[in-house]
Amino acid sequence: MQFYIETLGCQMNVLDSELAASALIGSGLTPASDKFDADVILFNTCSIRRHAEDKVFSALGRLKTWKDKKPYSVLGVIGCMAQKEQKNIFQRVPFVDLVLGPGSLDTLAAAVHQLLDEKVSGSRQAKKIAVSLDRKVNRHNDLIESYRLFNPERTVKETGTIKDIKAPKHASLVRIMFGCNQFCSYCIVPYVRGPEQSRPPGEIIAEVQSLVRQGVSKITFIGQTVNSYIYQDGGKTAKLADLLYEASNIAGLEQLDFVTGYPKGVDDALLQAVRDLPAVLKHFHIPAQSGSDSVLRRMNRHYTAAEYRELTDRIYSAIPGSSLTSDFIVGFCGETDAEFEATVDLVKYCRFRNSFVFKYSVREGTKSAELYADDVPETVKKYRNNWLLEVQKTAGTDDGACQSCRNRYN
Ligand code: SAH
Ligand code: SF4
Ligand code: F3S
Q1: Contacts (Cβ under 8 Å, ≥6 apart) of 105
Q2: Does 194 contact ligand 3 (Cβ within 6 A)?
Q3: Does ligand 3 lie within 6 Å of residue 12's CB atom?
Q4: Is the N or C terminus of the chain more exposed, i.e. has fewer CB atoms within 10 Å?
C-alpha cells in the first residue's frame, strides 16, 4: 500500500513530513510517486495565514474523485490546521478520515493502519481525531503531556519521497525545541504547537551524529525561537551556543545553521560561537516584524525598534562578514502611514540580506483578533507589501547565493 504527503508551511512541517514518512515506511507502507496512485494521502498543513488554510480546503475538495474511486483509502489532515480546526475539517470536507495534530504525530502510523483495517472490514465511515489540549484552558503539565515530542530515527533516503521538500539529501533539519511561549498578538503558533519544550542536548547531538554517519554534512537546527533554547539538568544548563560548540566537534559535519531567532535573548555567547566556529554560517534570521514602537507594542513583541537596531549593530560588529534576514508584517491592525514609514526606515538601516514580507491576516483565537480591528484596507496592505520589497531590494545585500533564505518558506 502506498502513501503520499503534501507539505505546506514552515520548516517544522517539512521536518514533520520527513518524520511521518519515516514512521509510515517503518510500518510497512511505501511512498507513492504519483499522488493519485496512493492509498493514503496526508496534507501536512499550516495555519499561519488565512490563505494557507484556504489552499488546503480547496486541495482537499479536489480529491473527491480520487476518494470515490478508492473507498478504502485514507485521507488525512495533519499539522497546524488539524490542531486549530479539529472537527470543523470533517464538517467542511466530509470525506476526510483522519485529523491529527502536531503533538500527536507519534500515533500517526497506528491511526492510519487502524483506519485502513476498519475500512476493509466494512466500516467505511471510520474516522479518527487526535489533537492536543486547548492551551487557553489547560494546565502546563497536562499541556506538555498532550504535545508529545516525536523524533524517531530517520534514514536519509526517505527525504526524496515527500513532495515539496527542497533540501538536498546531504542537508537535514534537526528540531532542538518545540512550541512557542511568546504569544505575539497576531500569531497562531503558540496555540497549535503548544508550550516551549527544549530537547535534551544529548539526544540532539546523537541525532546529528546519526545523520552525519548517513552522509549528511549540513544541519539546520530549528525551533520557533531557537535562541530561547535552554535545557537544565541537575546543576547544568545548556543553551544554543553550547549545542553549536558540541555539534561542531562532530567529524564530517561541514555546515551548521539555525532558525528562527527572536530579537531578545541573543547573548554574547551565541555571537562568539557563530564568530569562532568555522562550520557555523555567519547568518541570523531574526524577524523584526515592524519598525514602529507602537505597532511592536500592539504586536506584543517586547522590544523597541531602537533595541532591534542595536542588536543588528552588535551582530555586524561582533561577526565580520555576517548577514541578517528578517520577516515583516504589513497592514497590521491600525498601522498608519507614519508607522509603516518607520518600518521602511528600519529596513533601510539594517542592510538585511533579504526580507520576507507578509500582509496581516486575522487568526481567530489570537489576541489581535480579539482586541483590534483588521482595519487596513487590502489595497493598502498590498501597496505596503510591494513597497517594502522594493526598499529591501535597494537597501538589501542579497546576492542570490543564500540557499537557506530561499528554502525558508514554501
Ligand atoms: N517563529 C518565527 C516565525 C513564525 S511564522 C518568529 O517568531 O519570527 C513566520 C512569519 O509569519 C512570522 O515571522 C510573521 O512575519 C508571519 N506571520 C505570523 N502570523 C501572521 C499573521 N497572522 N499574518 C501575517 N503574517 C504572519
Ligand atoms: Fe509566532 Fe511570535 Fe512565537 Fe514567532 S515568536 S512563533 S511570531 S508567537
Ligand atoms: Fe505554519 Fe505551523 Fe509553521 S502554522 S508556519 S506550519 S508552525
Answers
A1: 16, 19, 20, 23, 78, 148, 150
A2: no
A3: yes
A4: C
